[in-house]
């Protein structure tokens, strides 16, 4: 847009932006109105802290703030490929070595199965929400509807941070694997700026360029992105198939003789590491708004892709053990050096090519998920509402995609892999835990319908489930080898879940597709995710605390007042429409 005036009379700058694009709400129209808003912070906190949205609000009124709708062009086939492409990056080529050599031994296959089933529990919870609420916000929307604005804001702010870190990390890894293909040291493909601090001195233009190319693909068309993802993922699967076939020709079953050298604790410790090879499907859930038939396509796509991934991971890890004894596996490049050990040095190029293809699809899924998260957050005015805009021509969230790509590119251009790797892990597990908890709330509590008795019992049982899950995780984390602690915490979790099943009436049934065995599976999902959180290093909790503090500052000074004004405007509009309809002698039309 050229310079001129916007529809509210605000002067546009040369770049086409004005204050109205970022802070159009009443509280920010003048210094006096902003000071008045700050004076009312306490009352607004009381109003918004536990305010829950409603399904019809998210599906219609909130989504309508984007002016244009995204095209519904995806089916179950697209979602399966997006699911595989989003999850299967370089994790299998990196994490398997540490898990097998240092913790589980040949039982790494069991560890992959355990962590895969844990991920599948989270996939089930996401699937029910995604079918019922097929909008771009993903977990932000689910938490906003069931646990309230504040919890959703803190969770979404943290997961966006991890998306940026993950995107930058994968982009720099892309450069590293490209260097491997040409027999070069990774830093030889980067520029060294000696005046910068060491961790930020190796500038990576390739990472930035790859991110920008992925951005262009994501902006042009979601269906086009799906086609590109499908082709790249098929190539990746062919590489994995090659690894399986060639590896099995050199198999030695004797390598499985000492199956679990570190016992059950080693298997579970490896599972907590390998769980991060399964993350990424949460970003695919943000594509729900663009799916033709959510009730059919989303369950087939999300659950089907996760089952395929679990099978492939177990087969690949078993093949690695059959090629090389676990105590000889290299921690950093397990598959590459395993092939070298059996005389197939050329195979490292195939492995590097597979990793490159995998990381490309992960980058695409990452930016698609980031942009759609940010789009829906912008719709609620917790982020600048210009991010909520859907491009009229492409019907994709171009603004959010470009902004997030620029952030990813800047971080990836400067920051070393060591720094980025240490920033990942905690938030994803927290989000998965909260989504499982939100599903229990959704099934057993409906405002205005659930009796106070059932509500109080629900709160009691949820507190017991949360408390016993945390206690079990802490007992594990402090390294106690005895069973006494588990003999107390696990029965409490079981009795609380049983009590919820038997003593609280289910308040809401899913319309199209629902998680089976509720409350057992969501409760188990919460407990297992909290258990894995116990393996995350303490520094991650410190970083989580610092970033959350920054989010709180933004919330108190900006997001709270912006979302309060937006909610008030929506309420006033709805009330006016209802009053007009009643005056005309008709009934208000409600979305169901």
UniProtKB/TrEMBL annotation:
How this chain sits in the membrane, per its record, is: Multi-pass membrane protein
Q: Which InterPro entries match?
A: AA/rel_permease1, CAT_C
Name the UniProt key words of this record, in alphabetical order: Amino-acid transport, Membrane, Transmembrane, Transmembrane helix, Transport
* Localization per record: Membrane
Q: Which residues cross the membrane?
A: 74-95, 107-129, 150-171, 205-221, 228-247, 267-288, 300-326, 346-369, 398-417, 423-446, 458-478, 484-504, 516-535, 541-560
- Organism superkingdom: Eukaryota
Instruction: Give the family per the record.
Output: Belongs to the amino acid-polyamine-organocation (APC) superfamily. Cationic amino acid transporter (CAT) (TC 2.A.3.3) family.
Q: Which Pfam families match?
A: AA_permease_2 (PF13520), AA_permease_C (PF13906)
GO cellular-component term (any): plasma membrane
Q: Which Gene3D superfamilies match?
A: Amino acid/polyamine transporter I
Please provide, alphabetically and separated by semicolons, the GO molecular function terms listed in this UniProt record.
L-glutamate transmembrane transporter activity; L-lysine transmembrane transporter activity
Any keyword Membrane? yes
Name all Cationic amino acid transporter C-terminal domain ranges.
513-563
* The protein's name: Cationic amino acid transporter C-terminal domain-containing protein
